[in-house]
Amino acid sequence: MHGYTAGKDDYLKRLRRIEGQVRGLQRMIENDEYCIDVLTQISAATKALQAVSLGLVDEHLRHCVAQAIAEGGEVADAKVREASDAIARLVRS
Question: Which InterPro entries match (predicted)?
């Protein structure tokens, strides 16, 4: 079981909402909407994805990493490294 499993329905609901936002962006471009309005909606979709990402990072740290640290050894080191790498990717994006 993954750390996000308990909140899976909430994550799916949020992702479906984001999917709708992206479809709305496509319609805005098709309809030649004003550039700034499109950019505003892109910013909103980006922030929504970032919120999902942060929630998943939090769940991963609380569940997967915490469990690995409790077990100790190389598995713990690998999980911490994996989480650090994932956070670094999010910060760079």
Answer: Metal_Tscrpt_repr (IPR003735), Metal_Tscrpt_repr_sf (IPR038390)
- Indicate if the pLDDT at residue 29 is higher than 90: yes
Identify the pLDDT of residue 28. 98
User: Could you tell me the CATH number of the domain that includes residue 78?
Assistant: 1.20.58.1000
Domain limits at 57? 5-92
**Token code pair at residue 74:** 């190389």
37-53: average pLDDT: 97
Q: Say if CB 48 and CB 11 are below 8 A apart.
A: no
In angstroms, the CA 12 to CA 6 distance is 12
- For 13, phi and psi rounded to 5 degrees? -60, -45
**Residue 18, both tokens:** 């984001």
Nearest Cα residue to 79 out of 62, 93, 92: 62
What's the structural domain count of the chain? 1
Question: What is the C-alpha separation between 12 and 25, in angstroms, rounded?
Answer: 20
